[in-house]
Amino acid sequence: MTTTTITTLRLESRFKELKREIIKPENREAVQASWERLLKALDRKADEISRAGSSYIPEVNWRDIENGGFTEEMSSLIHARGCLIIRDVIDDEQCNQWREDTKKYIKSHPGITGTPRAGVTSNWFIHWSKAQVEARSHPRMVQLMKTVGKLYKNNDPDALLDMDSQVVYADRLRIRYPGRDSTLPLHLDSSSIERWEDEQYRDVYREIFEGRWEDWDPSLIDRRPSAKQDLYQGMSSNGSTCSVFRSFQGWLALSDAKPGEGTIWFLPDLKCVLAYILLRPFFDDGGNLDLSSAQFPGATPGSGQFMAYDRAMFPHLQHNKSVVGIPYVKPGDFVLWHADLLHEVDEEHKGDKESSVVYIAHTPLCPYNIETLKDSRECFDSGAKPRDFRYEYDDGPDESSYEDRGREEHLLSLEGKQALGLVPFDVNEEGLTPGQIAVRKMANEAMQR
């Protein structure tokens, strides 16, 4: 079995000063009291999740939200639990075709590599296959991304953010076969130490650091896009960092799968769990506020935020009770999770057939993502590896020489072409906010340079 090898480094002394900067003197009493409330809330939450199991993860059918969007009740549930399964987004026949096309693509190019590096590959270093290009640009996928983008609240009409427009983040795909091969332990994506170190990023969690974690709203979007999520340019080269702002992560199922068959598990709570992770570095094991250490458990510069390598540092997460596998999924179902949600992957695939998904994130248009828009277009045109994945060149070639990779004619929608910078965004569309118009203009100008 191969695992992602990451350990918590001893951080520089400057991080001790950072702690004192974050927890201001006037807030320290409130933060101490909030920690005590939080630990009790985590206990209740662990019991609640444990009793429900996989059924705790919300589900909805695509046809129920296709036109009218999410009900207020479902929106509240997603904001609280941070994840969702959307059934029947793409029809089975299309998904089965994409899966078979991908297997043929891999077989046709023996140079394609992936992880684990020893044994049977499950995560393939592929970014521009025809199946991926079609799936990202499929009209249903475009509509889905617009629909889920409305789960967030933007209180600033001038914010340079367009949740209706996407930028392609050319992630990989998984075809995992039965057996023990690899795993990804409990973690948060979208950075690690940056959640504390970057001033704009930690402002997203302002209420938590002021001792008011109950008031933190994970669905509020306007403070997020300007946060710097990769201050260390992914120096760990383990694929756990991301230079783009993803409001949601997700994947489209290309096969059947259920817990224990090489699929994903969640700790389905946002507010309590994220508050615990962010406040844990400020408390000793006895529950007392302690700003004398430079350590941030689980945080390694240039990596994701990993909880599982030292569970003793995070006992109140109650991993064995709180982390649950997703319900059974079939081809065409879409699994979605918030950028701040803890998740992990099955250590072992105990099923009898492959488990296949294509990763597609909700990556809205904002200034921070315009560099990714430019990079994605260049890499799409050439077949090169996107910037977050250039470490893959150590293992094998890119797709530039593959004549059967995805091309412009395989983009299935206008929005799919816009998301790759091939067609300008419409700045005259009815109903746009001033911020949407401004950021679309910024993107269009950037793509002309």
UniProtKB/TrEMBL annotation:
Q: Name one Pfam family in it.
A: Gig2-like
Q: Which domain of life is it from?
A: Eukaryota
| Protein name in the entry | DUF1479-domain-containing protein
Gene source species: Pichia angusta (Yeast)
